[in-house]
Structures are given as C-alpha cells and as structure tokens.
C-alpha cells in the first residue's frame, strides 16, 4: 500500500484493542481505505456548557461558559513556511495540512468543513494549515499531489496519513475519524503503528525530506556569494 500514490484516496491508521475501536476494511478504486468507529463518548466535544455550585454563603455561582475556540488555520504561502510549520510543531502534536486549488469548486465547499474542524479540535494537540498550489507548484509535484482537495497529517516530522476526497461530506467524515483515532493512541501504540506501516510512512516522509532539501537549496541560492 502506497500512502501517496497518485489520485489515491487513502486513510491510514492503526487500531488497537484498548482504544475501544472497531474497523471495517474495504477497497475503493483509488486505494485502500480503513474506516474506524469508536463507541466511547467523544471527549473532544466542543458544545458550550455551564455549571453551577453553591459557595459557603449559600448563594449559587454560575460558571462562565467556555471561551470560543481560537484554533485558526494557518495559511502557508511558501515552501519555507510549509517546512517550518511542520518542523516547528510541538513534540507529538498532529499537523493537518490541506492542499487546494483556487479554481477547484470542491475545495471551496471543503474549506467550510475544514474551518469547522479547526474550531472543533481547538483544545486538542493538533494544528491546522493549508497551502494553495500556486504558492509552490513543485511542492505539489514532489509530494505527488495531483487531485484537490488533498490532506496530509504529520507528527514529529513524519507524514503519517494522507488522502484525497470526492465530496465534502466524505472529507469531513474520513478526516474526523482519522484524527479521532490518532488522538486516542497512547505512546506504546504509536510505536506499533510506526512499525506496522514503516514502508508507506517512510516513502511519504522521504518526499517531505526532498522538499526540505529543495527549501535549503533555494535559500542558499538567494544568499550573497
């Protein structure tokens, strides 16, 4: 299984018994998709709630509702910005990067879902970014991204999942399930996941390493002799 094959529709994640998850594996025209479903209450629900308690004086204090989510989507406008955003993410933080094109109608619909997702996960250890093709066409070619919209998930400099989509609802469902599964994984499960999918993750990460090299070469070419 190749995570970044051209025109792929691929969801990659590792499920372990202790995560209270179930999975159904099936094959689609564009590659292997693994879907997961968890039956636990979602700990990341961002619904606004209020609570009350009685103080020593007998009066009731009503807690203030949570502040509105502030997680924003970072717009990456260059190769340097793309690499720096991934490399400078905190340890073990997930980094979601959406690749899109200005003239893509589906990308415009997916943009609404992506913003909603960023708000939903505002308190989770995940960052959201996006980059448009004209910002650096070679980036898209090297990462073998030929369809829009396309999403990649990084963790500690490694590309751990990627997929395209054919509808905005499918994009929201698949990305949400992928993020949920990754956020529930414990350190020991990450080790098993990276070992089990070493080959596709290695190939995807090598493409990213190539972009780092191109970034450095571009920086050197701009430096005074």
From TrEMBL:
What keywords is this UniProt entry annotated with? Signal
Comp. bias regions, Low complexity: 50-61
Highest taxon above the source species: Eukaryota
**Which ranges carry the Thioredoxin domain?**
80-166
The segments labelled Disordered in the record are 50-70
Xref: Pfam families: Thioredoxin
Q: Which InterPro entries match?
A: Thioredoxin_domain (IPR013766)
Is rRNA processing there in the keyword field?
no
According to the record, the signal peptide region is 1-25
From the Swiss-Prot or TrEMBL record, give the protein name.
Thioredoxin
**Gene source species:** Nitzschia inconspicua
């Amino acid at each position: 299984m190749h995570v970044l094959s051209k025109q792929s529709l691929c969801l990659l994640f590792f499920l372990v018994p202790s995560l209270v998850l179930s999975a159904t594996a099936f094959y689609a025209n564009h590659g292997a998709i693994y879907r997961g479903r968890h039956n636990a209450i979602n700990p990341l629900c961002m619904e606004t709630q209020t609570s009350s308690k009685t103080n020593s004086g007998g009066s009731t204090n009503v807690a203030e509702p949570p502040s509105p989510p502030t997680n924003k989507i970072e717009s990456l406008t260059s190769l340097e910005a793309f690499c720096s955003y991934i490399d400078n993410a905190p340890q073990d933080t997930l980094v979601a990067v959406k690749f899109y094109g200005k003239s893509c109608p589906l990308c415009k619909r997916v943009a609404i879902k992506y913003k909603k997702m960023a708000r939903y996960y505002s308190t989770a250890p995940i960052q959201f970014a996006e980059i448009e093709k004209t910002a650096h066409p070679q980036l898209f070619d090297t990462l073998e991204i030929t369809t829009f919209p396309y999403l990649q998930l990084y963790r500690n400099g490694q590309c751990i999942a990627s997929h395209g989509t054919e509808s905005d609802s499918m994009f929201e469902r698949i990305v949400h399930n992928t993020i949920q599964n990754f956020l529930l994984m414990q350190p020991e499960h990450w080790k098993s996941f990276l070992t089990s999918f070493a080959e596709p993750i290695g190939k995807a990460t090598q493409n990213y390493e190539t972009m780092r090299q191109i970034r450095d070469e571009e920086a050197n070419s701009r430096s005074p002799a």
